[in-house]
Request: fold
Amino acid sequence: MILSSTLTIVLHRSFNCYGLDYNRQVFNKAVDLVNSGKASFQLVRDARFSYEAFEELDLRGMKCDEAIVAQALKLCGLCLAPTRLTVELRLIQATNCFRRGRIQMWEYFELLPMCELFSDCEQSCPKSLGERGTGGLYPIEDFASILMTGNERTGQFL
Reply:
């Protein structure tokens, strides 16, 4: 979309400390997502904020760790199945020529169309139903599910 000679002055270290090539790839990926209808402008904006929050201002990219990427997606209201996230991150690392062990913003944007809304996937804590048993205690049907965190329940659901 943007040629290397077009918008050179505007994109080179304009909004952030990244160079022209990085900003061009991020801009192209964001415009492609919005134009194709795979993501809204607000979602791309939220994804940029969540990426920058977990990038830790080191300008090398976000660590390519499943837990970190899952938390970043959760921050912008999205979730991705853990096995799918693992496969996608391995694929990104296999084709990544920018930085090893890091995921760049345009690669993070590629995960957005694969995600679901977190509100659709969120699992609540199971509650005990029924009458009090002997000794005045309520029976617990599935004790292991009560001990799971919300993220573990959502991951198991996905």
Remarks:
- DSSP finds nine helices and four strands in the chain.
- The beta strands are 62-63, 78-79, 102-103, 116-117.
